[in-house]
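$ run holo --ligand "thiamine diphosphate" --emit tokens
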Amino acid sequence: MKKQATRDAYGQALLELGALYDNIVVLDADLSKSTKTVEFARAYPERFINAGIAEQNMMGMAAGLASCGKVVFASSFAIFATGRAFEQVRNSIAYARLNVKICATHAGITVGEDGSSHQSVEDIALMRSVPNMTVIVPSDGISTRQALFQLYQHDGPAYLRLGRPAVPQVHDPGLDFAIGQAVELRRGKDLSLMACGIMVSKALQAAEILAAEGIEVSVVDMLSIKPLDKEMIIRKARESGALLTLEEHSIIGGLGSSICEAVCEYCPVPVTCLGINDLFGQSGSPEELLQYYGLGVEQIVEKARKLLKKK
Amino acid sequence: MRRIGEEELAVTSEKAGIIRQEIIKMLGEAGSGHTGGSLSAADMVACLYFWEMKLDPQKPDWQDRDRFVLSKGHAAPVLYAALAEKGFFPREYLRTLRKLGSPLQGHPDMRKLAGVEACTGSLGQGISWAVGMALAARIDQRDYRVYALLGDGELEEGMVWEAAMAAAHYRLDNLLALVDNNGLQIDGKIAEVMSPEPIADKFAAFGWNILEIDGHDHRQIMEALNSARSFKGSPTAVIAHTIKGKGCSFMENRVEWHGTAPNREEMEKALAELA
Ligand SMILES: Cc1ncc(C[n+]2csc(CCOP(=O)(O)OP(=O)(O)O)c2C)c(N)n1
Ligand SMILES: [Mg+2]
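-- output --
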């Protein structure tokens, strides 16, 4: 299977967008080589602004540029973009409903060896709690590119959560995704795996194993965290009678919480939320960490089997 | 160089008087809000809106307009009074300050009121916003200027110095920061709470062009604006020595008047002094 890091897809898509639209400005905070905005910086130096290691000012400048008609893509690591600069994002960007797309890379524990200070497990919760903010978590290179084109067209602030490691391609190149829509990748009546980001490909692998046991599960890419595709959630809850949510993020406030909110209100069925259990990350290889925090393929299969018994 | 004659000075002092009266009236009617810091900035705001800036109240979105960012957003009344006087919206709006559904929010909201350029109120953020605007002008090769008004207490925010670094780094000579150096913040004198002094030296060390003036002397304000406009290669910081509560004797230099609105009696007393 073809693999690509979502941050690499971001860097390439920015180049494409830069060629198409002059009103794009890209900001970074001394991480352009890691966030991959460096390609845009090389191609369009007059439209790239390095804020230096000053994320708060970067978000403030992004607001100022956007209020003068620019579509701003501001990048840093997820922990700094949403944590250090939270209140700037909230007050200067989201409240003012400005066209700033916060494209943060190195989200989650798969940052790996750098350890907890660099592993954001709270960013989805932070960003989705902010009014006016759209939150998208692409699962592969194809959906990243699509999301970026969609976000350019979308009038208003958005948070795009990107990762560090290469991840398998899960979508067709012809993917036609719209903000607010989930994408069903596999259909099965016994259980639905509702995943985002890197966990989508893990869910697909788990689905193969379960299928060999005669358990047919659906796999849905919930890449639009906000707005949330409630219709899809309700449909899957009704069809399969139980949902397993999967995310590389705290179980508090992320995809699982979002789905539970919808399920509780519209179609109560058993839900198990798989994510980081209110813990900080640590150093290790991405795969080791996923195992350690219970997000490995075998662990997903195990949880699925358990959940089936609750139906 | 723009002309600074008796005529011009007469206009701005008349406007500053009107702005001060409107500040008192709107705060008196609202029953809450920030009086002291609105009054200390009134002369600078009057000179900006009625002498310096290129603006068209009929076309608030005109791309080439100059931009004013009230980084010390709590002084919203001084901005609202100037905008109303300039003709951006009917003067009656001023009577709705801080009321439910009003376009005149407690702190400025660009989405609710024509003429407001930024959403401010969280101190430290407006200056970064202004830097972004100045960068946009540079990218688009437009010759508008960007003005940011900061409090002296606001300078305690680290973000201000991130912005100061960026503005100098990008040589934004289309940016002017005015510091309303009234010596007071909420908990007391800035010298006692957390001193940002020496303010001029700090901006100078960050690479800014520095001017120090009496922030209530219109001639000095205009001369500073003239001089900043012709200065090339770096942003200018105008350190304006001001009196918090300026114009109402019982409010002047009194920290209690930072976030207190006058009651009816105080309002009448203040208006009598300003008349
Ligand atoms: C980030 C932030 N922290 C705290 C406040 C609350 N606050 C409002 S005004 C103020 C004091 C401001 O002092 P200064 O900047 O000197 O303003 P001025 O004296 O001109 O009114 C504070 C702490 C705020 N608005 N924003
Ligand atoms: Mg002060």
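-- notes --
Residues 16 and 148 of chain A are 10 Å apart (CA to CA).
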